[in-house]
């Protein structure tokens, strides 16, 4: 993980937030390449979940909802983790995760393992961030930053069902920031307090829910594979009864083998009719489906939910590679071309040569209309290649002496390092085809 954090920092993917003020524990800002990578993850999710289907529509609900939403959903009463404090080292731990934590004084020991440790009794700590709406600061103005996007979908069920001209099974998809006051954030972006969820609530006739639950586990697993994540690093783990959330009758995690071990990448839950029933009872508005013949039922919900951050880390870990080429170390990010922040680099071999620069700039102008490409004329060509390798750019086009003679360029493949020559006029079509080709990581 340290190597990933260092690369993200060095190449401007991710910065510690508010760094000039000493940071803001486990909060991060995204630089240029981080933004591009996140945009690609988000748009590939949207393509798969909305654009490529007839049965899912999009929604963008507010972050601050009526607080009654969170009472009805069970978050005010039950969205808690058990917390213990150590009176000696003043650190806080999750009582149910002590085996994964380190003692503040003796990091090789667990909290509570040494005679110095003085842990308090566990108490429940609500993970929702509170805020005030309006000028008055009293109980009546208390509101919450949403801890999941899902509730914004449930409370809009009636609006969407009436207007979207869909009948169950159909889904509502939403991408947006969620906030949780995690007791023990950490492991870079893996557990943060502010993250971007991509959630889809799929409403189905009750008797069909087991089938759709299985279907969505498989669909989502396939999607993670389509991002290039290695099959050997992905698995599905079904939750035991004691592990499931209060609303769920079945949950499976799609797990990735992060450097910290197998951990949840995405969750797929069968939420039954819990949410629609709760909001019906609490709001008095019936959230149900009425068939043309008048039959009524409360749809059951299958929910695949993932954050961009967990995918971001998985892609970085899966893509990071080191090798020795021509007796020199090479660090390369073997990202699937579809997620790579920059699709191609355009490099004039001799930056002082005005003709080369002009040709390179013209090629950049042509390609940037369709893709994120990068022109770079700073420094030795070898160093420029290595920079592109580290940000995961799959192809580099070099404009050299021969280009000036016969209008051909060299294209270099990030993974194989193979080079070939192409007519400059054919680069756009070549790149379009290359980016569409099936891709598999050469990493073992
Ligand atoms: N609506 C259901 C829900 O929110 P969850 O398992 O608590 O379920 C769903 O969260 C997904 O959100 C997780 O699978 C994970 O990808 C992501 N996630 C949850 N907490 C996170 C955190 N603190 N930091 C980054 N991602 C998080």
Describe what you observe in this structure.
- The protein has 13 helices and 23 strands.
- With 444 residues, the protein is α+β, with helices and mostly antiparallel strands.
- The protein has a 7-stranded mixed sheet with strand order 3-9-10-16-13-12-11.
- The longest helix has 20 residues, at 32-51.
- It starts with a helix and ends in an 8-residue tail after the last helix.
- Bound molecules: glycyl-adenosine-5'-phosphate (GAP).
In short, what is this structure?
It is built from 13 helices and 23 strands. It has 444 residues and is an alpha+beta fold.
Provide the low-confidence segments as ranges.
Answer: none
CA-based gyration radius: 25 Å
Bound molecules: glycyl-adenosine-5'-phosphate
For the biggest sheet, the summary is:
7 strands, mixed
Helix and strand layout, with pairings?
Elements: H1 2-10, E1 14-16, E2 28-30, H2 32-51, E3 56-58, H3 67-72, H4 75-78, E4 80-85, E5 92-94, E6 123-126, E7 130-132, E8 142-144, H5 150-154, H6 157-163, E9 170-179, E10 194-204, H7 209-226, E11 234-238, E12 250-258, E13 261-272, H8 274-283, E14 289-290, E15 296-297, E16 300-307, H9 308-319, E17 320-325, E18 328-333, E19 344-348, H10 354-368, E20 373-375, H11 381-391, E21 395-399, H12 401-406, E22 408-413, E23 419-423, H13 427-436
Parallel strand pairs: 3-9, 19-20, 19-21
Antiparallel strand pairs: 1-2, 4-5, 4-6, 7-8, 9-10, 10-16, 11-12, 12-13, 13-16, 14-15, 17-18, 21-22, 22-23
Helix pairs in contact: 2-9
The structure holds glycyl-adenosine-5'-phosphate (GAP).
Glycyl-adenosine-5'-phosphate is lined by residues 148, 150, 180, 182, 191-192, 195, 197, 199, 264, 266-267, 303, 305-307, 309-310.
